[in-house]
Amino acid sequence: MTDPTLRPVSASHVEWSLEADVIVAGLGVAGATAAIEAARAGAEVVALERLGGGGGAAAMSGGFIYLGGGTALQKSLGFEDSVENMKAFMKAALGPGVDEAKVDVYCEESVEHYNWLVDAGVVFDESFWGEPGWEPPHGEGLMYSGGENAAPFNATIPPAPRGHLPRRAATADSEQAGGYMLMKPLLALVEELGVQTLYDNRVQSLVVDDDERVVGVIARNYGVDQAIKARRGVVLATGSFAYDNTMLRDHAPHIEGRPAASIESHDGRAILLGQALGAATAHMDATEVAIFCDPQLMARGILVNGQGQRFVTEDTYPGRIGQATLLNQGGEAFVIIDEASFEEALTTDSTSAMMRATPKWVCESVGELESEIGLPSGSLSATIDLYNTHAANGTDPMFGKKLQWLKPIGTPVAAYDLRGMMGGFTLGGLKTSTDSEVLHVSGAPIPGLYAAGRCTAGVCAGGYASGASLGDGSFFGRRAGVSAAAG
Predict the structure, then answer these.
(1) Cα–Cα dist 276/220, whole Å
(2) Running DSSP on this structure, what letter comes out for residue 4?
(3) Closest CA to 417 of 342, 333, 343
(4) Which of 113, 203, 238, 397 is the most exposed, fewest CB within 10 Å of its CB?
C-alpha cells in the first residue's frame, strides 16, 4: 500500500501553525545533541518526538560511546591511544567501504567530544573491565568494545579500549543502565536551553519551497496534522529501519524478524522522506548482529559451523562473532567447551550470565558429541585435534586467539546450539556530509535538510564496535544542530 505523505509537500499548499528556526525530528541521542547545539547557536528550536517521552533507543541501550585518541578516562586508567591508531582500527574494523572523511573527523575530535559529554553532565567511572563480555558487569567506565585487542587487529594496530560507559545509577529497586544515564543529562540540557518539545508527534512529510529547499514539516499528533515552519533547517534523527519489514526485505533480509537494540518506532521513515527528495543512501545492507551467548563461554571454547569447522577467533568482540555467524555461516554455529572450562566460566562475573543456560548436548567423547549434534562424521574430531595440537604449544595459527584463552579441549565435552540465537539492527541510511547535510544523489547537499544517527550511514559501513551508534549519533547530531542553526 502506497503512502502519499512520504512525498514532499509544496509550501504554497500549507498553512503554518507553528514556526521555529530549527526543527529536530527525534529525541534520541542524535536529536538531543542536535537540539542542544542548535539552541546554543542561538536558534529557536522545536523538537518533535513520536513517542511520549525522549530518549529513544539510546535510553534503552547499554550506553557505550565509542571514543578514543587519548580521552581523560583512557589516560587516567593508564592506556595510551592516538588519533592515528583509532583511525586505523576504525577503518579496518568498520568496513569495507567506510566514509573515511567521517572517520577522520570523528577520531580527530573524539577527545573534544568526550569532554563535551562530560561538560553536559555525563559521568564515567574511572574503572576498567578487561574480560570478554557485551558490557562490564559492575558498570566499569572503560572496556574493549570492538575487538581491538583481538586478532587480526592486535597484530598490526596497537590496541586501546575505547568503549566508554556512563555511570549507572542505583535506585531503590534497580539500576539504571548506561544508556539511560547518557540520555538523562542530555534531555535535561535540552529542557534547560528552552527547546520546545512536542511529544506524540510523528513527522509525516517534508515541506519544500519553490527552490526545493526544505522549509518545514507536516507533523501528526493523534490523527491531527499541523505544518511547522523551519526558518533555517530541519534535522532528521528518527532512528534505523530495523522494524520496517518491507525495507528489511529490500536491503537487509538476513535480520528480518530479528530486531535487537532497536525500538518499534525505528521504521525508516526519515530515510524514505529523504529518498523522496532524491537523497542518496549508503550501506543499506549493513547490520550489526548480536549473538546471544556469554562471551566468557565462547572465549574458553571454540566456535564451529555446520561442517564442524572453526570460522572466527572466539575471543574477539561478540558482535563480530554474530556477524560472522549470520552473514558468513548462514546462522549455524555451536560453542564447543569442555567441563573444566565451562566450570571456570561459571565463576566469572558477567552481564551475560543469563546466556549461560545448560548446554544442549553433554557427551563423554568428541565423537559422541559430533554424532549428537549431527555434524559430518570426523569433522569436529579433526577440528579439535588440530586446535588441541597447537593450543598445547600456546599458538593458534588458524585464527590468532590470544594465549590466555588457549587450552586443549578435553572431556567430558559439551555444546551450545546457537542457531537462531541472533538479532540485529541496521547501519545504513541517508548519505550525509561531515557537517551532517543530507546529500542528493548528485552529491550536492539538499538545502535545509540535515540528519544524524541511525537514519544515516555513519562511521560503520559493515563492521561494528559497541558504542559506534551512540558515538557517531551524538557527534554528528551536534554537527547537524550547528549546521541547521547556521542554515
Answers:
(1) 19
(2) G
(3) 333
(4) 397
Q: Which residue has the cell 543529562?
A: 185
User: What grid cell was written down for 80?
Assistant: 595510551
Kindly give the pairing relationship between strand 196-199 and strand 16-25. unpaired
What digits encode the pLDDT tens for the residues 404-454? Answer: 999 999 999 999 999 999 999 999 999 999 999 999 999 999 999 999 999
Contacts with 26 (C-beta within 8 Å, 6 or more apart), sequence order: 48, 49, 50, 56, 236, 237, 238, 239, 270, 453, 455
Model confidence over 126-152: pLDDT tens digits? 999 999 988 998 889 999 999 999 999
**pLDDT, mean over the chain:** 96
Task: Report yes or no: 334 and 418 within 8 Å, Cβ to Cβ.
Answer: yes
Residue 201 vs residues 39, 54, 56, 317: alpha-carbon distances, Å: 20, 12, 14, 38
* DSSP tag of 331: T
Query: Which among 235, 268, 274 has a CA at the least distance from the CA of 36?
Result: 235
Give me the pLDDT at residue 1, please.
Answer: 57
Count of all residues that appear for the chain in the document: 487
- pLDDT value, residue 4: 86
Prior bond to 152 cis, omega within 30? yes
pLDDT at 361 over 70: yes
Q: Which letter does DSSP use for residue 405 in this model?
A: G
**pTM score, whole prediction:** 0.97
- 237 within 8 A of 37, measured Cβ to Cβ: no
pLDDT over 60 at 297, yes or no: yes
Give the torsion sign (CA, 51, 55, 59, 61): positive
Q: Which residues pair with 205 in a beta bridge?
A: 218
User: Which residue from 12, 16, 35, 8 is spatially nearest to 453, judged by alpha carbons?
Assistant: 35
